[in-house]
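Weekly sync notes, structure subgroup
Attendees: PM, AL, DS (notes)

Item 1: joint prediction request from the bench team. They want all two components modeled as one assembly rather than separately. Inputs as received:
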Amino acid sequence: MEEDFKLLTKFKQGDQEAFASLVKKYKMAVFNTIYSIIGDTQEADDIAQEVFLKVYTKAGSFKRKSSFSTWLYKITVNKCIDELRKRKNKIISLETEFDEDEKLKLKDVLASKEGDITEEWEKEELEDTIQKAINSLPEKDRIILTLKEIENLSYKEISQIMKISLDKVKVWLFRARQKLKEKLLFLYPEG
Amino acid sequence: MSCMKFRILLSSYLDQEITKDEEKKLLQHLQTCPDCARELEHLEKIKRIFLLKERKEPREFFETRLFEHIKNRTKQPVWRSYFPVFRRTVVVILVLFLVIVGWVNYRKLFYPRTTEIISDLLLDEEINENFEQELLEAYYGPLG
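Output from the run, pasted for the record:
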């Protein structure tokens, strides 16, 4: 956290290398958060660029009220929300239904003790299946699950990013998991 | 505590965001409630699904593209690079100009200039004719 502040201070003083270090450190986190919420790699890349552009132009207004990463995630989530709102006016369909092959594949992987897959194409297929499950959820659930499960953030960080109480984080996560469970009912043959 | 509340706790338990006291109560409940115990298994499965998800890489040359993007978006027209130097002067001149224009129009509206009144009189032929007649009567007395 202190390292981020130091880099940011250097950047505010005009050190472009310091900004490049921050981008290098956080580009994967930003990109994967966006991809998980938006569900499209090309768009995730474009939005990630917009996020860092905003960091570049608004770094001066950053106050040390939260960590740099929390501020960055806040910008990222807000950009995603803007994008999802724009989409409401367009017809963009993300795949959300599983075919039989995908269901079997996911079942097999979860049944195996290590959940180990060696083939590259199998990894990609599984990746798409998991993303389909996330795509099928409402915006709010996608965001909270992404922050917890993909980015492994604490409840406190999530509450700061989403501007909700800790109790709400608990309840929203519980509901999001319930909805995801309903989508993945084929994994639970015993009901 | 109801099963519903324990299920919310289950979700927090998996994320290790639960107090010692809550954990104790939850573990006791799980020993007596097979439905909640099965729910825990289901939630663990969902958690495993996310662990299987690999992190993706953004497209190639992310930083290069970003810096190009920043350069294009933050590029200012030449006149704007001089603008900060003259900004205060420009603002003062603009405010003075607006005050003067406002004052002049205010004066025009409520206090028309005398020259304008006279020119209006001269333009009006009827008034002009009466004025001449009145002038003659003043010299020679009432006319015919």
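Discussion: Chain B touches chain A through 34 residues (CB under 8 Å).
Action: AL to compare against the crosslinking data before next sync.
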